[in-house]
């Protein structure tokens, strides 16, 4: 099965929980990258006063590459373990990956 890139976007307050969960499943996620991001747009609920003033909400982006079946299992795991975490995701095909 071909590799995919799974991107997860989440509020900062759930990011550590997601990272901890991913680290417990090296069979599904042998590695990942996490970066800070800013959530903007009509789909992003701004709650805190600082968010309302800034016009964006702090988010964390986690990306991982691997077999599609494994990444679908990751999504099922997140849905089961963190059902109300407000995680937006997408999967895209990977043309090539490796180390240089």
In the CATH hierarchy, the architecture is: 2-Layer Sandwich
Could you state the oligomeric state of the chains shown? single chain
Helices and strands, in order, run as: EHEHEHE
Q: What fold name goes in the CATH topology slot?
A: Alpha-Beta Plaits
Q: What is the mean pLDDT?
A: 87
- Whole-angstrom Rg: 15 Å
Poorly predicted runs of 5 or more residues: none
SS content category:
alpha+beta
Shape: globular
Q: Tell me roughly what share of residues is in helical segments.
A: 25-40%
The count of β-strands is 4
Hey, roughly how much beta strand do the residues contain? 25-35%
The structural domain count equals 1
Major beta sheet, strand line-up: 2-3-1-4
Describe this structure as you would to a colleague:
The chain has 100 residues and is of the alpha+beta class. The chain has a single domain, classed as Alpha-Beta Plaits. It is 32% helix and 33% strand. It is built from three helices and four strands, in the order βαβαβαβ. The chain has a four-stranded antiparallel beta sheet. The relative contact order is 0.34.
